[in-house]
Amino acid sequence: MPSLSEIQPGYLIIIEGGDGLGKSTQLNMLKDQLESQGRRTLTYDFPNKSGTPIGQLIGDFLRGRFGQVTPEFLGLAFAADRLVARKSIVEALSAGTVVLCDRYVASNIAFQGAKIADDQRRAQLDGLLRWLEYEVYELPRPDLEIVLTSSDQHYLEGAHLARANDPTRAYAEGQADIHEASSDLQRAVNLYFRGLQETPALRKVDIEDAEGNRRSTEEMAAIIWGAVMAAMQPSQRG
Ligand SMILES: Nc1ncnc2c1ncn2[C@@H]1O[C@H](COP(=O)(O)OP(=O)(O)OP(=O)(O)O)[C@@H](O)[C@H]1O
Ligand SMILES: Cc1cn([C@H]2C[C@H](O)[C@@H](COP(=O)(O)O)O2)c(=O)[nH]c1=O
Q1: C-beta of 216 in contact with ligand 1 (< 6 A)
Q2: Which residues, 6+ apart, have CB-to-CB distance to 99 below 8 Å?
Q3: Which residues form the Thymidylate kinase-like domain (predicted)?
Q4: 155-180 burial, b if ≥16 CB within 10 A, otherwise e?
Q5: Is the CB–ligand 2 distance for residue 18 below 6 Å?
Q6: Per-residue model confidence as pLDDT tens digits over 98-109
């Protein structure tokens, strides 16, 4: 039987975490580092938010146009947004490209699940989204998820307010989006991510150091680079 690296020579690396914790900053630094070492990369930022009809609907939801939407139904829209990108992700991985995603399936489970208080219903949503995205839509599973967390609620509240001119936030028209506006949601999402178990394919990186000081972008990038190098060792692929 061929090894995974023969079937899929590329790598799928995801940067996950709560809103505004520095995911896109780290994704861009990782992309530069990989490219400086001769690796071809392709980046995605989920959800698309404007480039497709589904992304436009998601952008409208985040701007509050539909009010609160039942988490199970909302999860279907985010999953469909990823399905649109599936073919090009799979082709890139087959061609040996490192595909870097700012958010992926785990964000759907984290954000929709954080809106559900009942444990049984939340577990059903978790199963529904994993089944739909990985089994029905056959989205490739990540080789490595880097999950940014914070032990200081300060960074989870109002981080967007200082970023009115950030072009990646144009969809929100200068306001907090419907997820950012809820500190309860941000807290629950961060708790979910902090509770994930680390594995060779999942590495949590707290944005604060042991003394509670925010790590610099360079320090974060060095930690993430170490995790990426470890995950890309041939021995991790079997
Ligand atoms: N280590 C850091 N220290 C201080 N500020 C940072 C650090 N990393 C990123 N920032 C700043 O925090 C803000 C949010 O960063 P970034 O856009 O990378 O976060 P994000 O997690 O991708 O956000 P979103 O969830 O809204 O997409 C930006 O203004 C960025 O310059
Ligand atoms: C991919 C994905 C994202 N979300 C949530 C997470 C954020 O609150 C917003 C938009 O993300 P961005 O980082 O501001 O671009 O959408 C989600 O609920 N489900 C998902 O699959």
Answers
A1: yes
A2: 10, 11, 12, 13, 41, 42, 43, 44, 89, 92, 93
A3: 15-148
A4: bbbebbeeeeeeeebebbeeebbbbb
A5: no
A6: 999 999 999 999
pLDDT at 162: 62
Beta strands in the chain (DSSP E): 11-17, 41-45, 98-102, 144-149, 202-206
CA-atom Rg of the chain in angstroms: 17
Residue written as token pair 């890309």: 232
Distance from C-alpha of 32 to C-alpha of 20, rounded to nearest angstrom:
20
Give the distance (Å) from ligand 1 centre to CA of residue 150.
Answer: 12
Which ligand sits nearest to residue 207's alpha carbon?
Answer: 1
Residue 230 CB contacts under 8 Å (≥ 6 apart), including other chains: 200, 236
pLDDT for 4 equals 43
